Amino acid sequence: MRDSPQEFVRNFSIIAHIDHGKTTLMDRMLEITRTVDPRQMREQFLDAMALERERGITIKMHPVTLGYTARDGEEYKLNIIDTPGHVDFTYEVSRSLAACDGAVLLVDASQGVEAQTVANALLAVGNGLALVPAINKIDLAAADVDVTRDELEEVVGIDAAEAVLVSAKDGTNVVELLEAVVARVPPPTGDAGAPLRALIFDAQYDPHRGVLAYVRVVDGALRRGTRIRLMASDRVYEVNEVGIFKPAMAATDELAAGDVGYVAANVKEIAEARVGDTVTYAEGGVAKALPGYREVKPMVFASLFPVEADDYDPLKRGLEKLALNDASLSWQAEESAALGFGFRCGFLGVLHMEIVRERLEREYELEVITTTPHVAYEVTTRDGRTQSVENPAKLPDPAGIEIIGEPFVEATVYTPARYIGPVVELLKGRRGEHVSMEFFAGDRVAVKYRLPLVEIIVDFFDKLKALSQGYASLDYGHVGYRPSKMVKLDVLLNGKAVDALSVIVHEERAYRRGRELVTKLRREIPRQLYEVVIQAAVGSRVIARETLKPARKNVTAKCYGGDVTRKRKLLEKQKAGKKRMKQVGNVAVPQEAFLAVLRTEN
Predict the structure, then answer these.
(1) I need a surface site. Which of 139, 262, 343, 455 has the fewest CB within 10 A?
(2) Helix (H) or strand (E) holding 428
(3) CB 403 within 8 A of CB 387
(4) pLDDT tens-digit profile of 63-73?
């Protein structure tokens, strides 16, 4: 592939709902363009992480540069970014779209338009990208192309007359899709002679080369030896390598205006190469940075604690490196009386939280305890101050609270009409309020409900899939805070609160949640030498209690006959000793018990 002038460059992304075939389509494109040696080719080629291959989902965006010879004989450089489809990774999609000029909107012909199809299409249109609709899986017996076309026009609002019909599995019409991209996606419009402006849209850390920044060059050019300035940190570096993704990193002479690639410049400090930052020349560079990205707000919060205290620093380094590669992850240090030193982390959803935890365990060989996930509440105190509280331990004294604002979302569920009854019951059971219901072609329904975020972060998605036999899909967006009757539920062991198990719950759910927690703890805590009282309390009011009976040593085992008062004396001595231990001793709760309870909660 020769160095291409801008008119022969196409930067586009593949966007779709989860499981609609993005990664399989990328496999066929890699094969058709012979970017990957056929002997090295495998399914889900760009899903390099073991977690992605095991779960069958894309977690990280994956850029790749293809050389494509079109039917008119021209050689094109296609810079493609394969994106995730799950709602928790929408921020990954938005970052990839900022580096593109167009997008292939892929829709499953057997499933039709689903929640993330609409959400991703709106993201692309909002970024001003050219959309190329493609209907995938036309080889399936359940495929209904006409209905899918109607849904694209009715639900998404785009002209589906020229949608390309493809089968990513067997490669049908993938070449036609590449031709459509060449014809409909505009080339980049950058000035090669202007001062350098390049957007960092992702990054990774290499222990030998430092931070490797993934960039889209808007103006100017990047070459080895170029002195660059990172505008956010105002630090100057010298470039020692630039390159493209084929799909492995491959060094090139330069990255010109319109190109997508990586730059290595011995950036050792992880915090200095921020996603969304602008790269320019150290001398004669631009004064105004590129727009970058809107700051993402975490939706779900949980604490991560190392099982071994010595792993605190490795856990901190692991979070730093993951945050470089995952701009939607936020974290800060915290201390728990029960679990020691750890970090309070913000995530976009529970799946995001699970992925971060598993990456820490696999990539950095750390064993961590994850506390129960929470959302951020907006608390207004009686003196008029408002604060955000995402940790139950930081909730102010109830006597001083005027209002607790609970975060609400507007959830859109796309489902076949035959499942509408169970889906609506599920939404109502989660304190949902009906907004609208719209029927589309192909017996599809879009149901909108407003409901508390906390009601959907744990098991809602799994229950939705179970009720609809896997056909329903979910998308949601934050719509603000509403006053709610929320209370702090504490777990007490012999009268002492365990901060790691405290939760903020709705007043109506407090008793059931408290009963669940004390029952689980009674099963998990090993018996002590004295009685342990496990309580769930709201303020000073105990709402659930379990008692763990003491482990009893048979102190009369050596008494063979004789006066009964001898046995009674030994038993009374044992009783007095246990009473003294109960007064001065703390309950010994192993971390395995916390781990078991928290995993069950999650």
Answers:
(1) 139
(2) helix 420-429
(3) no
(4) 888 888 888 88
pLDDT value of position 201: 83
Is residue 544 within 8 A of residue 533, CB to CB? The reply is no
Between CA 393 and CA 389 the distance in angstroms is: 9
User: To 10 degrees, the CA torsion angle through 39, 44, 45, 51?
Assistant: -120
pLDDT of residue 579: 52
Give the pair of three-digit tokens for residue 417: 């009409």
Asked if 473 contacts 116 with a C-beta cutoff of 8 angstroms, the reply is: yes
- Give the strand pairing for 75-82 and 9-16: parallel
Question: Mind listing the pLDDT tens digit for each residue in 101-128?
Answer: 999 999 999 888 888 888 888 888 888 8
The string of DSSP codes covering 453-483 is GGGTSSSHHHHHHHHTTT--EEEEEEEEEEE
Mean pLDDT over 460-478 rounds to 84
Note the pLDDT of residue 437. Answer: 92
Q: Cα Rg for the chain, rounded, in angstroms?
A: 29
More confidently predicted of 551 and 80? 80
Listed residue (151, 56, 153) closest to 351, CA to CA: 56
What residues does 16 pair with on adjacent strands? 106
Please state, as a whole number, how many other Cβ atoms lie within 10 Å of the Cβ of residue 84.
26
The single residue listed with the structure tokens 């990172």 is 230
Lowest mean pLDDT among 129-133, 203-207, 365-369, 573-577: 573-577
- Backbone φ and ψ of 364, nearest 5°: -120, 5
pLDDT tens sequence across 310-345: 899 999 988 988 887 777 788 889 887 777 889 999
Task: State the amino acid at position 435 in one-letter form.
Answer: V
- The first and second tokens of residue 435, run together, are 């907004």
Q: What beta strand segments (E) does 348-416 contain?
A: 368-370, 377-381, 386-389, 401-416
How many Å apart are CA 138 and CA 141, to the nearest integer?
8
Mean pLDDT value of segment 178-184: 93
Kindly indicate the confidence band of residue 427, based on its pLDDT and cuts at 50, 70 and 90. Answer: very high
- Helix (H) and strand (E) counts in the chain: 13, 31
Domains recognised in the chain with CATH numbers: 6-184 (3.40.50.300), 197-281 (2.40.30.10), 300-370 (3.30.70.870), 383-483 (3.30.70.240), 488-601 (3.30.70.2570)
Q: Give percent of the chain above pLDDT 70.
A: 85
Instruction: Tell me how far apart the alpha carbons of residues 94 and 115 are, in angstroms, rounded to a whole number.
Output: 16
Q: Please answer whether residues 43 and 227 qualify as being in contact, where contact means their C-beta atoms are separated by less than 8 angstroms.
A: no
Please check whether residue 101 is in contact with residue 10, taking contact to mean a CB–CB distance below 8 angstroms. Answer: yes
Show the CA angle centred on residue 32, arms to residues 30 and 36, nearest 5°: 40
Backbone torsions φ then ψ of 553, nearest 5 degrees: -85, 135
- String of DSSP letters for 134-199: EEE-TTSTT--HHHHHHHIIIII----TTPEE-BTTTTBTHHHHHHHHHHHSPPP---TTSPPEEE
Question: Is 376 buried (19+), middle (13-18) or exposed (0-12) by CB count in 10 A?
Answer: buried
Other C-beta atoms closer than 10 Å to the C-beta of 508 total: 10
Describe the chain by its helix, strand, coil percentages, rounded to 5: 30, 35, 35
Widest pairwise Cα distance in the chain = 109
In degrees, rounded to 5, the angle at the alpha carbon of residue 324 between the alpha carbons of residues 323 and 330 is 25
